[in-house]
């Protein structure tokens, strides 16, 4: 792939939390408009990978090319302005802010964000609950809000961490539809998932992560042939 | 109508007003402490020293450069704020990840250094600062005389407190600030320059103390010890109101000033300690403070 179509390329990425060495040379790439999944067991280093891209871990070495720029040494607040939106595993809804304040919080990073009307059309619940304190929303509503607030900013690369975790099947299904809509709108998406059945139909490519490194890359077309691999690493 | 519980109404109103004046200072100082604690996780023991410096900058401005009260009201807080920013950048920023104790020790040390410096230069006797012409005299309210300068202290400090509250609770910048207080890492990942906000918050918090210092200059003597006298009560106010609560620190500051004033009327012996009695009670019944949230 030529660099022009590449949104994100991570090469030989090592990351640390204090003394603990979490990532041991991660390598993967994400092209524009693609949906890529990082699969793996708990503690394999998938969440840390997203955090390392955003500059939220301790020391990092290796290379993170974002939109053609090397950002491995950048502070977190500058990285977001390259068009990166982040939806953390714990959702990160601010309890001291109302739902609407949460939604409006992340600064605009480009003019390509969805309009407020579009977002409320996608998540009608959020319109009804916009005056509620962030802490009063249900788990599903918090997840919708965490996703919605990065769609407004004009971020084109979405880093989504375990968005289906702990939610009712009907909400998971709704999230799947939303991801599909976002792909149609040309968003580039990195999904960190445990839920293979949620991720498989959405992903163009999958990376299997183990002990802080990528151990396998599976194209959508290879899914059938590589069943055994998935079985081995994920038990699916 | 001329006596309430055997106390002349005039005396009661007089003390009530004095209580409001003191409460205004408590409110402004504890507000700054609350904002700083929320954002920086630092118990700013140097707050009293910054208050003292605000008064001294006003006094020095007048004495050496002929800068009048109104200019000082603007310039002294700016000067104190810039000094605060320099201290945050050079020292405090290295302490955020450590225990509260380190920030407390550093700022306590800074307070001693600053106070010692002014003590060495000007002694402890205190310098007079005259009330500006526009604010001398008193309003005759019919039932009492209200010195104009005291009215000015109350009005201007309430205005500043309201402005601060409004900025934090009702504006976009305030939403950034609240978000950064709650979850700084995520807020930074959204593209908000949190280290810059932290620096400005400290500058703003100590500038509030500097402003209070200028307001205090004509009402009290400008003395190197004025800060350390006040700061102990202000910390009690912060404990009672709850660390980190904006509205809580304003209301508690004013309320305790009034309670202190009324105690002077009804039971003068307890007026110096009443705040601490209340603090003990609050700590027993609501350890997080009247407006604080349990963590």
Automatic annotation (TrEMBL), chain A:
Any Pfam family matching the protein: ABC_tran
Gene Ontology MF term list: ATP binding; ATP hydrolysis activity; branched-chain amino acid transmembrane transporter activity
Keyword terms of this UniProt record: Amino-acid transport, ATP-binding, Cell membrane, Membrane, Nucleotide-binding, Transport
Domain ABC transporter residue range list: 8-236
Gene3D superfamilies assigned: P-loop containing nucleotide triphosphate hydrolases
GO biological process per UniProt: L-amino acid transport
Record carries keyword Cell membrane: yes
Family, per entry: Belongs to the ABC transporter superfamily.
Protein name (record): ABC transporter ATP-binding protein
Species of the source: Candidatus Desulfobacillus denitrificans
Automatic annotation (TrEMBL), chain B:
Keyword ATP-binding among UniProt keywords: no
Membrane-spanning ranges: 12-35, 42-62, 68-87, 99-118, 149-168, 189-217, 229-254, 266-285
InterPro entries: ABC_transp_permease, BCAA_transport_permease
Signal sequence interval, chain numbering: none
A GO BP entry: amino acid transport
Molecular function, one GO term: transmembrane transporter activity
Record membrane topology: Multi-pass membrane protein
Taxonomy, superkingdom: Bacteria
Stored Pfam families: BPD_transp_2 (PF02653)
GO CC annotation, single: plasma membrane
Keyword Signal: no
Location of this chain's protein in the cell: Cell membrane
Keywords: Amino-acid transport, Cell membrane, Membrane, Transmembrane, Transmembrane helix, Transport
Family the UniProt entry places it in: Belongs to the binding-protein-dependent transport system permease family. LivHM subfamily.
PANTHER family assigned: ABC TRANSPORTER ATP-BINDING PROTEIN (PTHR11795:SF442), BRANCHED-CHAIN AMINO ACID TRANSPORT SYSTEM PERMEASE PROTEIN LIVH (PTHR11795)
Protein name: Branched-chain amino acid ABC transporter permease
Phylogenetic classification of the source organism: Bacteria, Pseudomonadati, Pseudomonadota, Betaproteobacteria, Candidatus Desulfobacillus
């Amino acid at each position: 792939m030529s660099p022009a179509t590449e949104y994100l390329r991570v090469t030989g990425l090592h990351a640390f939390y204090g003394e603990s060495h979490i990532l041991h040379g991660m390598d993967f790439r994400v092209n524009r408009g693609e949906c890529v999944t990082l699969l793996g067991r708990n503690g394999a280093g998938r969440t840390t990978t997203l955090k390392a891209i955003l500059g939220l871990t301790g020391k990092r070495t290796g290379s993170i090319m974002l939109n053609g720029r090397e950002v491995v040494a950048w502070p977190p607040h500058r990285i977001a302005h390259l068009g990166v939106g982040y939806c953390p595993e714990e959702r990160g809804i601010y309890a001291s802010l109302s739902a609407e304040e949460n939604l409006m919080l992340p600064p605009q990073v480009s003019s390509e964000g969805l309009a407020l009307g579009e977002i409320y059309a996608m998540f009608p619940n959020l319109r009804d609950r916009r005056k509620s304190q962030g802490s009063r929303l249900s788990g599903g509503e918090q997840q919708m809000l965490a996703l919605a607030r990065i769609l407004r900013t004009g971020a084109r690369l979405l880093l989504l961490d375990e968005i289906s975790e702990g939610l009712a099947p009907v909400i998971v299904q709704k999230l799947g539809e939303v991801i599909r809509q976002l792909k149609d709108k040309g968003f580039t998406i990195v999904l960190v998932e445990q839920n293979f059945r949620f991720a498989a139909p959405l992903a163009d490519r999958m990376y299997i992560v183990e002990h802080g490194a990528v151990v396998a890359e599976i194209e959508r077309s290879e899914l059938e042939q590589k069943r055994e691999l998935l079985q081995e690493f994920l038990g699916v | 109508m001329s006596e309430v519980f055997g106390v002349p109404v005039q005396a009661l109103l007089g003390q009530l007003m004095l209580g409001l004046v003191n409460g205004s200072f408590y409110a402004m100082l504890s507000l700054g402490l609350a904002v700083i604690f929320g954002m920086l996780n630092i118990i700013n023991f140097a707050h009293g020293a910054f208050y003292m410096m605000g008064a001294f900058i006003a006094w020095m401005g007048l004495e050496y450069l002929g800068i009048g009260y109104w200019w000082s009201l603007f310039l002294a807080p700016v000067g104190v704020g810039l000094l605060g920013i320099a201290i945050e950048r050079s020292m405090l920023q290295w302490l955020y990840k450590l225990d509260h104790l380190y920030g407390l020790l550093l700022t306590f040390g800074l307070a001693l250094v600053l106070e010692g410096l002014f003590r060495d230069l000007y002694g402890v006797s205190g310098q007079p600062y005259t009330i500006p012409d526009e604010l001398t005299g008193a309003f005759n309210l019919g039932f009492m005389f209200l010195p104009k300068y005291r009215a000015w202290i109350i009005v201007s400090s309430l205005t500043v407190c309201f402005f601060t509250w409004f900025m934090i609770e009702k504006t976009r910048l305030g939403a950034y600030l609240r978000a950064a207080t709650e979850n700084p890492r995520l807020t930074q990942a959204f593209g908000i320059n949190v280290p810059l906000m932290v620096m400005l918050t400290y500058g703003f918090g100590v500038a509030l103390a500097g402003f209070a210092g200028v307001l205090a200059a004509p009402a009290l003597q400008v003395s190197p010890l004025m800060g350390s006298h006040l700061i102990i009560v202000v910390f009690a106010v912060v404990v009672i109101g709850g660390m980190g609560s904006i509205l809580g620190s304003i209301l508690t500051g004013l309320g305790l000033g009034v309670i202190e004033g009324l105690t002077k009327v009804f039971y003068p012996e307890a007026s110096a300690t009443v705040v601490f009695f209340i603090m003990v009670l609050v700590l027993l019944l609501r350890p997080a403070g009247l407006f604080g949230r349990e963590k």
